[in-house]
Structure formats: structure tokens, C-alpha cells
Design a protein that fits this description.
A 7-stranded mixed beta sheet has the order 2-3-4-1-5-7-6. The longest helix is centred in the last third of the chain and has 24 residues, at 152-175. The protein contains 6 helices and 7 strands. The radius of gyration is 15 Å and the shape is globular. Helix 2 (68-78) crosses helix 3 (112-121) and helix 5 (152-175) runs antiparallel to helix 6 (177-184). It has a single domain (2-184), classed as 3-Layer(aba) Sandwich (Rossmann fold), CATH 3.40.50. It has helices at residues 22-33, 68-78, 112-121, 142-146, 152-175, 177-184; strands at 2-7, 39-41, 44-51, 54-61, 86-92, 100-103, 127-132.
Length: 187
């Protein structure tokens, strides 16, 4: 079976390591652990890994966050991915730093990348793994916050939290969304 795991973020060195790019960071960790590299392809950077007989396509869209849906729609069609085998990894302001929340479907929660995906796919019936980035910002400074780097305490915890997110992705592929939710949500 084929799976598509999409990590949301913005391309460019100025965005590397920022809160909004946690989806890219999780996919980079998955690829690194599997000793595979991303290739620059249409609408994004793509890598393919095997996970106990499953082919997992990793996608980091090159369309910028607000247009992520174009890349997702293209690769869903290109790789013939059924929506129940699609997982989107994104940041979430509503969750404390490092908190994971997997859901089989649902609203975009104000996230422009998820809005674009829902619009392009014509449905919100796809799984998402949200990685909490906290919401420690002054009123009116949300954009500055999500585009800023993690603080020192967050950086110290990053390897462990990203590792947990990678395990949640693997659980989704190997055992399904329900198992992943039961074992990784709020951990």
C-alpha cells in the first residue's frame, strides 16, 4: 500500500527552524532515520521510504504554506493515494509546545495550509498530525510568532518531541489513525 505523508512549512533559508516549519522538521527526521534524501520534484521535495512493506511518499511542498493544497492534490493523484492513507503534519498554535494531536479529519483550526488542502481536495476527510507550538505572543503578533525560531528550552526538547511525532507517523502507516491517536495524542 502507498501512503503520502506531507509536512507543512515554507521553503527558503529564512524560514528554516521556525515554528511554522515543524512539518518539514518531522519529515526531515523521518528521512534522516531512513537514510534517504529528498529530491526537488514538481510542487515539492519528495522522498520515498519503505516501512514494513508499505511505500511511504514524504512530501515537503515548495508552494509556500498558503498554497500547500496544490502540491497535495498533485501528489495524491500522481501516486494514486486514497485519502485514508494521507497524513498532513502541521504546526498548531492551540496546543502547548510539543503536544501531539492526531485526528482522522476535521476543521482547519485557522491554519492556512490546511485550508488550502481542504479547498483543493474538496474535503476535510484526511488525517492530520498537529504538533503544538504554543501561543506565547502578544495580541496581533501571531505571524511574527509562527515565523520565529523556537526558544532555547524548546530547542532542548525538540529531538525528543520530533522523535515522538515520527513514531506517531509510523503508527499511522502500520496500524491506522485510531491506534496512532490512542497512543500518541497528548503525550
Amino acid at each position: 500500500m502507498n501512503y503520502l505523508v506531507v509536512g507543512l512549512g515554507n521553503i527558503g533559508n529564512e524560514y528554516a527552524g521556525t515554528r511554522h516549519n515543524i512539518g518539514f522538521m518531522v519529515l526531515d527526521a523521518l528521512a534522516g532515520a531512513s537514510n534517504i534524501a529528498f529530491e526537488d520534484k514538481r510542487y515539492g521535495f519528495v522522498a520515498e521510504m519503505r516501512l514494513k512493506g508499505h511505500k511511504v511518499v514524504l512530501l515537503k511542498p515548495s508552494t509556500y504554506m498558503n498554497l500547500s493544497g496544490n502540491a497535495v492534490r498533485y501528489w495524491v493523484k500522481q501516486k494514486k493515494i486514497e485519502l485514508e492513507r494521507l497524513l498532513i503534519v502541521s504546526d498548531d498554535l492551540a496546543l502547548p509546545f510539543g503536544t501531539l494531536r492526531m485526528k482522522p479529519s476535521g476543521s482547519e483550526g485557522g491554519h492556512n495550509g490546511l485550508k488550502s488542502i481542504t479547498q483543493c481536495l474538496g474535503t476535510d476527510q484526511y488525517a492530520r498530525l498537529r504538533f503544538g507550538i504554543g501561543n506565547e505572543f502578544a495580541r496581533g503578533h501571531q505571524v511574527d510568532f509562527v515565523l520565529s525560531p523556537f526558544d532555547e528550552a524548546e530547542k532542548a526538547a525538540m529531538d525528543k518531541r520530533v522523535g515522538q511525532a515520527c513514531e506517531a507517523v509510523k503508527a499511522f502507516v502500520l496500524s491506522g489513525v485510531q491506534f496512532a491517536m490512542n497512543n500518541y495524542n497528548n503525550k
